[in-house]
Amino acid sequence: MAWAMLLVAGLLEVVWAYCMKQSEGFTRVVPTAITLVTMIGSFALLSLSMRTLPLGTAYVIWTGIGAVGAFLAGIAFLGEHASTTRILAALLIVSGLVLMKVSGPH
């Protein structure tokens, strides 16, 4: 259950990062509200997952999902550049997440 909560927490991190960008410096009400609500949800689920997962594992997985997810959202929805180097960097992050998962408690 902790891993499921952590996955959802990471996905919520992607949502709040995207909505924060859309809020234009917290000047638009709806994206700002979505940012705050998903931020709280993300932190709450991260906190709950840390009841059983090690701090380092939970935090690295959470930030990794957020980083790679925000990178992909930027490309898919905001027209950000997808160079070979940036894609390689994202793949390295994903490989680190996989290694963190398989090296932790099962």
TrEMBL record:
Per the record, membrane topology reads: Multi-pass membrane protein
Question: Where would you say this protein principally sits, based on its record?
Answer: membrane
Query: Which residue ranges does UniProt annotate as crossing the membrane?
Result: 27-46, 58-78, 84-102
Tell me the compartments it is located in. Answer: Cell membrane
Instruction: Tell whether Hydrolase is among the UniProt keywords.
Output: no
- A Pfam family that the UniProt record links to this protein: Multi_Drug_Res
Q: Which InterPro entries match?
A: EmrE-like, Small_drug/metabolite_transptr, Small_multidrug_res
Q: What are the entry keywords?
A: Cell membrane, Membrane, Transmembrane, Transmembrane helix, Transport
Q: Which family does it belong to?
A: Belongs to the drug/metabolite transporter (DMT) superfamily. Small multidrug resistance (SMR) (TC 2.A.7.1) family. Gdx/SugE subfamily.
Q: Protein name, please?
A: Guanidinium exporter
